[in-house]
## 1
Amino acid sequence: MMKRTFSWLLACAFASGLLIVSCSFPDEKDDTDPVETGTIQLQFDNIAGNQDLQLDSTRYMNAAGEDFTVSKLNYYISNIKLIKMDGSVFTVPQDSSYFLIREANNESQKLTIRNVLTGDYTGIEFVVGVDSTRSVADSTQRKGILDPYSGPTNEEAMYWDWNPGYIFLMLEGSSDSATTANGKYYYHIGGFGGRTSRTINNLKTIKLTFPGQKAIVTTSIVSNVLIQADILKIFNGPTQLSIKKSSGIMFSDSSKIIADNYAGMFNVKEIKIK
């Protein structure tokens, strides 16, 4: 009986000793550096050649010699990634990486990305459209800007109910060359590759290098990256688009031509440090 009592006391003493050892350095500091983050702003500026885009007022000319006006221009930007000088990539969390750019709404063209790892960035990557994973996700995962029943997506009719999916880019206007009864043209481009079988895939990943500049992100410095989108490239891209020949395009094989064209309409003009 005494041996068992002694063994038990010894075990308790040993355990107490470990506890004392483990807590005997209260002033010891963690060498792990805290993760510092900052903010970066992306400013989208829609233009037509060397002119600022104006809705319903200015007439523009495409490469086919057709004049046209623009009454609506909307497009989704998603899946944003920032590329550092050393080649590493900061991926914006998906739930914070969906935006609808609307020419009629100035505030929609200013994207504020928070909680970005500090550092020097030399490029950006993003998707024009809404990726297939999010497109087929439950409606509870498509709130905010992606809610098809409320907010801008609903107001701008950027979702097809008849062919469930988002319209990645919507361009509408008028033209003397349009063959529609009301003289309007319309291009509604979507298609994420198919829900249950393979269909049109017009998702476009855009990769841009910052021209001779870097975007600096610190806890106090905010860089504003000005990205221009030249809508003339929608007509004057790899394949020339004629309003007379194609006054209205939605979910058809011709939509790929427009998607391939607008994939080249973006460029970084400048970076301003605040």
## 2
Amino acid sequence: MFDKIKVLVVDDSFIARKYLSKMLSESEYIEVIGKAKNGLEGFEQTKLLKPDVVTLDIEMPKMNGLEALEKIMSECPTPVIMISTLTKDGAKETLKALHLGAIDYIPKNDILSFKSTAAAAKKILIEKVISAKSSSVSLKRRLQRISSSSASVAKKSISTTSGKKLEKANIKLLAIAASTGGPIALEKLFSKLPKLNIPILIIQHMPKTFTGVFADSLNKISAIQIKEASDSDELKPNIGYLAPGDSQMTVSKGAGNRYIVKISKEPKTIYTPNADITFNSAAEHFKNNLLSVIMTGMGNDGFKGLQTAHNNGGLIIAQDKDSCVVWGMPRKPTQTGIADFVVSLNEMPAYISKIVLGE
């Protein structure tokens, strides 16, 4: 026997509460222990019931989701998954929620849809709840870890699984992938990265409506220009190309020595954009001139692509377990030894800079 994950569902819509509860209860690993119809009731139920995970709507009466989240993280820290609307405003509010301590989010439009996509959304929701339970959000450790100084992390030993020295390499492309916990981790990374004089590909599991807003958010804090990638964009130095949601991003050879970005709706994958597809494509074209970075996120997306990168002589950096919100995507690259360097989030900018620039 195992203890089921206890979930509190908070939404002002009776239909949403009922449907969400039904979806979650269909998993043998999850038990819905309560429902709340507004943010204030959700906060009070969180204190009383002590759930393992809370699903939290954003737009609610009495106390909205952001206000409730702030009180939950302050008084009874609990892993929270936001239920967001697929709008530009919804994307901005979701990013605010992640800054306030939410673990993850899922588009409300997807899970409450009766279309064929609802089955995939349901599977992802259940996976997110299971990952949230095992995440690093316990008490206030996650918030403290995200904002911890590099000096404190520097005291930890850094694992180099390949025995390679940290030194300048002939890198011509940087590819980065993340999922759960990724938006905040990527903000922290790009706020500290200098101009690298190479193009950068960025994969973050996000719906289409969110990626444009997120690219703008990253661009405001980064020395590197960040944009949502478009089909046939030419890869240029000091530009980061964020894969648009619901699309795959690959690299293609253009005229002369130019490389361009290709954006496509195919192939269909459960996580789109897909890190495996981007890493594979980048590795095939750039071989040992590729630096790949795998960051916090649930699941194994990216591992197969990183195997190709490793076999083609590229370098790989994996985020370490302690600084991940969910140690899913970096786990297998670390455990199998294909990651050349396993480093904390705080030290990642320095490692990338040393490998790319030699400084």
## 3
Amino acid sequence: MLTTVTANPCVDLTLFVRDFKKGATNRPVFSVHEAAGKGVNVARAYRALGGESFCTGFDFSEGETSLLERALAAESMPHEFVPVSGKLRTCVKIFDETNAEMTEVNESGGEVSPRDEAALLSLIASAAEKSEFLSLSGSLPRGVSPDFYARAIAAARAAAPRCRIAVDAAGETLGAALAAAPDLIKPNESEFCALFGIPAEPGEIVKAASALTESGKAGAVCVSMGERGAYLAFRDAAYFCPAPRVTVRSLQAAGDAMLAGLIFAATRGEAPEKWLLFGTAMAGATVSRPGSEIGRREEAKALFAGLSVEKIR
């Protein structure tokens, strides 16, 4: 089973426009409104591939059953969240269909107390005992220190030493998590280059990713680059996979779907290069769908057949 942690869930409002003009009135062709969050998207994608998922994290429910709870219950997705005061933040995504570009305006979210943090750490440790893999995804809400994911890794490993752990985060949060040596990290290109102060050049990215695995700060490093593909580095090898050619209908949840594909391959004992094939295929299937909608297994399977991985180290 995969347990996913969504520390800062949200309601995604995705507006689809054509030829978006900054500073002008733009009318959407249609819109998608759904409760989500990076960890929730990972869980949905992992289940779409045929795996078993469990969702946890904080839920800003204002003392009532939240939109997130209702959405997951409707999907029959197993879940247990730590309820906190406040409402779910809203993340507005404006997808320009003409240029396949996404503009995002994301609220920060509510504030979490130390007591709530402790409750979630306990829940993570308990869930890890029943899981093959744990993923920690996304930003942290106000009141939560950047080392939260590092503490979550420590709690999970103390309770379940065999449970592998993935992190998809940025900035200080990812930097702090590396001190706990996760088994897999999956930043995108801009996040990775900003954290290490390197140019967005293939050689520099592979060098920095390989250095992380060689130093033991991460077991594997996947850097996603959108339509230009993705790199995956281990201590003894590194791979590149180009992105499949698809009609892009949204960029939302693509990275989450890629992480789910990587984990799905890992839990099934696939060869390292197959991890990247599964991840890339699932990301390609997902960008072919609107909003945060996750690609389907059969769509990913069709893309998988046309992909190839190059060993670059």
## 4
Amino acid sequence: MTDTTAPAQKSGIRFTGAFHRLLAFSGLIALVLVFSLASPNFMQTQNILAILQATAVNGVLAIAVTLVIITGGIDLSVGTLMTFCAVIAGVILTYWGLPMPLGIIGAILAGTASGLISGTVVAKLKVPPFIATLGMMLILKGLSLVISGTRPIYFNDTPGFNQIALGSVVGQIIPAVPVPNGVMILFAVALLASFVLGKTALGRYTFALGSNEEAVRLSGVNVDRWKIGVYALSGAIVGVGGVLIASRLNSAQPALGQGYELEAIAAVVIGGTSLSGGRGTVLGTLIGALIISVLANGLRILSVAQEWQTVVTGTIIILAVYADILRRRNL
């Protein structure tokens, strides 16, 4: 997967994005080994599938956030946008009784529309991304509660909806490898996002905006249009996450969502994407999402209190950001 991170060198020490990803991957392997030795239950098939299933939703949201952060922005609305998209799917499928494909398309279009609005506020109105997406987070949270009437929307009358995330097409072909569909969707989204970043004009301008937006503007490029496009694509990906969480729970929970954005951003940072923009990969983000899922699962198996799990995760995030600071100092 594409990485435009230039090699950095200072005093003979190379500290690059590739090194950061290698460090993250080594940390992931170390966590797996430690938890495997600490508990025989960790490497059981059902537990591995549970880790992958937990990674699917957070991974999709993290990929969406990766695109925005590479531009030098931030998106605090992905958690509540995911919920909003799930509620829209619930309205289309349960309240209106329309076919399942229309519900999926509706959720993705809702995410795209929200991304367009956020991108327009950031690009055209020049509102800082932190404030713009914070406001959007609150708006979407309120709309989800209003549209749903503050009640969960269940998909019991939509046969097969829960199989979008929980079923296993791979398992039907190869019974020994029952990889959940949600995980396969995560990989598909990752491949698509990687292709966009590495092979399209949108991807090139995504990195360029994060590296030096003013230089891009002076070169005659319509910066606002490309920035809005990035936010719209990010919103569409979050729409996929909304479908996944609704399928996994077989319901749209309007009060759910807040807090997911923190885990998504954490996965992005741990995976080596620079918060200053201009650098990052989808592969690194996937590694970061897996680290968070493995850490949470392993600590839970070892009966570590929830509050200490949060402390450990926060410490890892700080270390990941410090590593990014060291990398930028070497540039």
